[in-house]
UniProtKB/TrEMBL annotation:
Residues 141-164 have a biased composition (Basic and acidic residues). It comes from Bifidobacterium ramosum. InterPro entries: Alpha/beta_knot_MTases (IPR029028), MRM3-like_sub_bind (IPR053888), Ribosomal_eL30-like_sf (IPR029064), rRNA_Methyltransferase (IPR051259), SpoU_MeTrfase (IPR001537), SpoU_subst-bd (IPR013123), tRNA_m1G_MTases_N (IPR029026). Residues 130-170 are annotated as: Disordered. GO terms for molecular function: RNA binding; RNA methyltransferase activity. This is rRNA methyltransferase.
Amino acid sequence: MVTGMPISAEVLANVKADRIRRVSDLANRRSREKSGRFLIEGPQSVREVVAWHPDVVRDLYVQAGDASDGSHDGFANQTIAAIAQAALDSDIYVHRATREVMTRISSDAQGIAAVGDLTAMRDAMRFDGVSSHGASANDSPVRDASSHDTSVEDAAERDAHDGGADDGSVRGISGPFVAAFWQVRDPGNAGTVIRAADAAGCDAVVFVDDCVDVFNPKVIRSTAGSLFHLPVVSMTTGGFFDRARADGVRVIAADVYGTDDRKPELLPDVLAERSGTRRITDDPHGDAILFGNEARGLPRDVLKRCDRIVSIPLYGKAESLNLGTSAAVMLMSLAMARR
């Protein structure tokens, strides 16, 4: 094993050690904010943060193996060994620990967990000058020219170079493609919709108003690593609509009922409208698809601020779709229409 960072020969075995207690406590939001650290559990999420944001990781804890386990380079299995090697190559300090210690860190760790720096991750997740720590309704859309934030213009340029048609023209729609979620409270749902947005090629995810903490370990685990692939930010309701207007981005509400004076358009009709030979230069606007709370959807006052309201038709006997399924269907359908 060739390493860039040393790995201690010691195997952490004391489940009551202060270090282990502090890592375990990161499941609690107050502990995360106080320490400036967050916990990443499981092989998928840890592999992705090591691959995409190794500078965020402060420590990696892995389950040690022994001869009876058929261990690989002193680790419990080949998957853990490969991630540990990648971490060592990125100068991340790796700590081997017993199965009992890993379980004390997290019962969902599956033999591997990482501790990340909150500030560094929030900086890495910024989109158009907004971070995962939130923005107020009065925030200016003007960006710091010296920053490395993903901007509306960057997103448009990226779309314009995303591929071409046989005749040499570029297909798709200019501008950013953003998935937004209003008052999402369930950690599993939050992680699922981040994963759906990542799969659809969204430029960013925006959590609007009072939502679950994206650094909740269950949120991170439910993203299956997608949290580390795209910007994820938080905004107030007013700040979200103000930013969309300032940047010329249409807000499309995903809603079943609409309002008294505006019924929703059906998704197939919207897709048909966007299909065919329309070129990227025909429409410079981007889209922000806004989904509502799991139980209550979007309130009337929020719907009235949206440019369009779109619903997914149901052809069978099901009464409705849950948030994760709705987000996957809507975002993937619109993503395919953009390409």
